[in-house]
Design a protein that fits this description.
Order of helices and strands: HEEHEEEEE
CATH topology: Beta-Lactamase
Number of helices: 2
Helix content: 10-25%
Distance between the termini: 24 Å
CATH class: Alpha Beta
Largest sheet: 5 strands, antiparallel
Number of domains: 1
Radius of gyration: 14 Å
Structural class: alpha+beta
Number of strands: 7
Strand order of the largest sheet: 2-1-5-4-3
CATH superfamily: Dynein light chain 2a, cytoplasmic
Amino acid sequence: MAPQQGGGTDPLKGVLEEYLAIPGMMAAILVSDQGLMISSATAPGVDAPSIAALVIETVATAQRFGSQVDAGFLDTMSIDFEKLTVVLAPFTPDVMLALVATPGCLDSKREVPIVRDGVRRE
């Protein structure tokens, strides 16, 4: 999946922008398995390309851990920081969805739909 070229509209941007309607959501970013940003919707001040580059390193490290302990393939990963929560989930086999939010926004009790293969999963 490649970034849009030629000034065309990004069909994924609308799907990603829906995440920003969730209170506290700061960014929804699609990241290739090479660490490149494919598409994003962000609040002002969020550096989506830098987050995309970090996502691939984070996922690779977690996958190495899973391999070492024979845990199977990485599905969804949540990282909670004091001031930030990040959820990484597969979108397609070679693309990850990164959701960046304020703490508590992506609480496991709150239903946040994840889109995979272009289909919303509740």
